[in-house]
Structure formats: structure tokens, C-alpha cells
Amino acid sequence: MKNRPRIIIVGGGFGGLWAARAMAGKHVDVTLIDRKNHHVFQPLLYQVATAVLSPGEIASPIRRILHNAKNIEVILGEAVGFDKDKQTVRLENGAEIPFDYLIIAAGARHSYFGNDDWERAAPGLKTIEDAVEMRRRILLAFELAEREAYLTGTHEPLNFVVVGGGPTGVELAGAIADIARQALAKDFKAIDTTKAKVLLFEGSDRVLGTFAKDLSESAKKQLEDIGVEVRLNSFVTEIESGRVKVGEDWIECDVVLWATGVAASPLGKQLGAETDKAGRVFVQPDLTIPDYKNIFVIGDMASLKQSNGEPVPGVSPAAMQMGSATAANILSDLKGAARTDFRYVDKGTMATIGRSKAIADIQGWHFSGFIAWMMWLFLHVVFLIGFRNRVYVLLEWFWAYLTRERSARLITGNAEELRDAVMFIEGESAAAIRDRPGGKKVSSAGKI
After folding, report:
1. Residue 78 is a catalytic residue
2. Residues 6+ positions from 152 with CB-CB distance below 8 Å
3. What topology is assigned to 6-35+77-110+262-335 in CATH?
4. Domain map of the chain by residue range?
């Protein structure tokens, strides 16, 4: 047992988990290290953020997923550095773990392009915690508007701003519009939720820019059909509590959600290898770093061009394929066989926009509307880990489709923060309001 090769995997996302599963039961000892004890199905995070699903329905404990693999150990911890020559991984407590092969799959976070102070006012969406915080802000905006209307007889119009017209931004904007116009419409008495405005700002000339132009245009139309105001060629240049600046104009809003910009885990820079502007490590065709054939970087942390010159996209199917390919190459090494260069197989891309609305590009075939939505639903259920999770998600989607209900409409968070939000909406002084540029009151939901 002591002579078995030691494989360390950093990160339990799609890339790391698929690599671990490919080596389950093999003649190697695998240790998977992650800061969280669970794997998150990130493509459905926005459904937690918009109260369709609960966190437990899109996440599974990593230890449970791999419990049948006797050769795999799962460690809760954070890797903070590496010694490539001594072949060790350093943890946050100073402990070092030796390896024969290292797979780094620590993923990515949202990037604010140097404006990290914007995060407090405009959360991004990469983790369960992010999704729960978004859900809290969205639902709290409606609750505080209802309270204000009940106590004063009036309330400021509700405005939701989504920054970024990629898949996450489009999905968030469409889901918020659906919540306001359908799911909550009959639940509030003092306010009319259907009048809530959802604005989507995109800096380029079309949403979903990685899709074909006809699908991009279809997505824009579908968004507008459900009430989303899409503003193209619009760069957000400043974000403050309760408002955003687009060009020279300040726009008041209750909630701002960030859905643009990605930065790879800073662990990539700890390797001493060359990285791109987003922190992704330039890797060799077999996904290793230069001069170290036993150190692999995969998933959102890897920068690799395909044979057509286009970069491998930072999507979950690519990470899964990288994880499986890396495991195969390590096992080939141990058998004395040749490695295989990584080749990304694009099986199609899709994005959902709202209830029965989506777009899909499958091997050059373009689909829009209900058919694309059904394809999206089927694909996401297939890849969702855990039989119970699949059943729960299918039931929730079926119930939401029939009734337009949102079963996960829970406002969670620090009780003091919630109380402060209520006090703010009732107690901001007239002088404070006058002193603000434009003389407008800041929304409490944007403030918290």
C-alpha cells in the first residue's frame, strides 16, 4: 500500500470530482482537498438565488459522492501553496501533504475588474452562499416595499439591476421578471409586484455573445417578452449602495446583481507558471504546466487553445472532460503507456431565459423557446449528482411549472441586518435624502 502513487486533487468542483471518480478503485491513493464539504451543481445556482430550488437540491456532500471509493480520502481544508520540487501541497494551517501527481481544479470567482469594493453592493454568483444572499436581497426588496406601502400608503417603484448579459445574467434577469409578474403577483396586497422593473445592462452589442447571432437576438426578444429591459452597449462604471452609474447617468435601484467578469483562483499564481489576465494558467496540450509533467491544471483555472484557435470555454462540460482526461493520462503513465493530448468535445451550449423560454445550439442546430427549454431541463437533470436530488428537482420544476409557485422563498441572514433594513426604510432623514445627488432616497434593499 505504501508504494501506491499518491494523487492530490485540489478542488471538488466538476473538474476535480470527475478526475476523482475516474480513479476510484484504481491502484492509486487519492486525496481530494476542498474548502467546502459539498459539490455544487453551479449551472442551477441561479435557481437557488431566485427561490425556485433550495440549496440542498443542487449540492451533495463530496464524501458521500465518493464513499464507495475506498482509495479516495476527502479532506476539508484550503490549499494555499505548493512546493513543486519537493512535491508537497501546503494547507492553511501550515501542514504539508506530499504527492506524486497533483491536479489543481480550484475553479474561479467573479471579478469586479479592480473594483472589489463593488461586491458588497452587487454580489456575484459562484457559491451556495452567494445564491442565498441574492435570494435574501431579492425577496427582501418586495417585503420592504410592502411594509412601506402598508405604513405610508405609497412606496418607491421597485428596480432590479443585473450587470452582464452572459448566461448567468440572462438567467437571473428572466427569473426575477418571472417572480415579479407571476410567482409573487397574488401574494402581496399593498404593492403591485408586476410593475417591478428589471434592467439588464450589457457592455457589448448583444446578449449571450458566445452564441450565434440569431440565437442571441432570440434571447433578447424572449427577455423583452417577459418584461426585462435590455440595454446594450451600456457599461456600468460605478456601483454604490442603491444605485449604479451607466455612462454619466445614475440609476436608482433596490437590488444590483453582478453577472460579468471571471477571475481564476489565485492558486494558479502560486505555481509560478505564466497566467493570462484572468489568472488562468497557460497549460500544455496534456493539461500540465511547463517543466512539470506531474502537475495538472484543469477547469476554469486552465487556459488552452483548441485546434481551431479558440480557447477551451470555461463551462462545466469542459471541466468534466478535463478531469476525466487527466485521470486517464495519469493511469496511462502508471501503465507505461503514452499520454493523449486533451481535445474538447463541444456537445452543445444552451441558456434558459424564463418559464418555457431558452435557446440551444446543438452541433450547429439552433433551437429556441419551449423545445430549447425542455432540452435544457433534461440535460441538467441528467448531470445533477444524486438520484434523490434529481427526483426533488424534477418535482420542484413540475410544481413550479403548473402553479408558478416558488417553494424556497425564505429570507435568511443576520437578524440585525434585517432589522437595520426596516429601520433604514422608515427612518432616513429628509436632510440625508436632500444631500444625495439627485435628491432621491436610497433603497434599503440596495443598502444591505
Report:
1. no
2. none
3. FAD/NAD(P)-binding domain (3.50.50)
4. 6-35+77-110+262-335, 116-260+414-447
Query: Model-level pTM?
Result: 0.87
Q: Which of 146, 148, 171, 240 is catalytic?
A: 171
Question: Up-side HSE of residue 65: CA atoms within 13 Å toward CB?
Answer: 25
Tens-place pLDDT, residues 153-186: 988 889 999 999 999 999 999 999 999 998 888 8
Q: Position of cell 448566461?
A: 167
